[in-house]
Amino acid sequence: MTGPSPRTFNFGAGNPDPGVFPSRDLGEAARRALTRMGTELAHYPEARGLPELRGVAQQRFERNHHVRPPLEDIVITNGAMQGLQLSAQGLARPGDAVIMEEFEYSGTIRVFKQCGLELVPVPVDEHGMRIDALETILEQRIASGKRPAFIYTTASYQNPTGTSLPLERRRKLLELGRRHSVLIVEDDTYGDISFEPLQVPAIYALANAGEVMYIGSFSKILGPGIRLGFFIATEAIIARLMPWKMDGGTSMLSQLVAAEYFKDHLWDHIEEGRQAVKDKRNVLLDALEGEFGTVPGMRWSQPDGGLFVWVKLPEDVDRVRLQELAVARGITYATGQAFHALNSDVAYLRLAFGWIDKDDITEGVRLLAECVREAMPATVAS
Ligand SMILES: Cc1ncc(COP(=O)(O)O)c(C=O)c1O
Q1: pTM of the predicted model as reported, rounded to 2 decimal places
Q2: Domains in the chain, ordered, with CATH?
Q3: What distance in Å separates the CA atoms of residue 267 and residue 192, rounded to the nearest whole number?
């Protein structure tokens, strides 16, 4: 006989709250969309995507950032991931350098490396990319004739650090890009998951045409299984990217269903998802304070959006041992190394709070604290 499966604590998955996934409403939207437009599936999708879904992306951007991007500048992709890949293939050549935050989404790092790009990290602090450091790096690169292909940034609710670039830094970043004629690729995958009413505008919304390629996603407001994202860019940039979009088009089934669903539910669903993960963030921050508040050398980010808390461990924690201990207790998290642009083994870990059940967070952090204590060097009894 097998007993009940052991309890697990998944702080690893960067997904939205599965509890708010709208299966029933999506099912109804699918029935309506297929009844009306099912024959659309009998041919290949339009290369730039379904106009209705591009309209949703446009409306979403306008409401969040008070700027209305032209519909013809919006292209639907197979997740934000495809936008990233297209930027690496269409805007750079193998061997080119790309400047990015020192800690960055592991998927971006993988795609850029796979495309043969050199990753140039910029140090970050609790407000995101350090623009003073960026300026030095940019000037050195340009002086030595190695102009980077672009600057990539996840400026809002960053993965993994949870930080957001303040307005003044966004302006300075733009100004630097403008001064040195270097394009900015802004990945705003978490832009909608804001916990405070005041959102800082996207860099794209502050820029002149052609200075920024903006990448968005439907994964974090609906679900990554839908595989829908988009980018916004001028025609000149789109023309460099489209030759690399060699997938025969983004799934028309997904696009039809999502466009139909979002017609009625865009803002209420975003709000529901935000609230669910904000509650979890609060529980997680309380649990971290309770368990680690007095541990010297430990600190963590206080994200006001997104899905991640970035935890600094004391340097003397044995990180391999910590992971073994955590796995044995059913805890999953992502190691800091996975997010380091140069793969350095840094004393950090990332706790994702979107997917895990709210009721598991406090106990998961309590167990993690046991693991951290066990993975610290033994204090010598006097
Ligand atoms: C910063 C960032 N960009 C892009 C992605 C990929 O998103 P999508 O599921 O839309 O491809 C992720 C996923 O976690 C991410 O964190």
Answers
A1: 0.96
A2: 9-20+268-374 (3.90.1150.10), 23-265 (3.40.640.10)
A3: 10
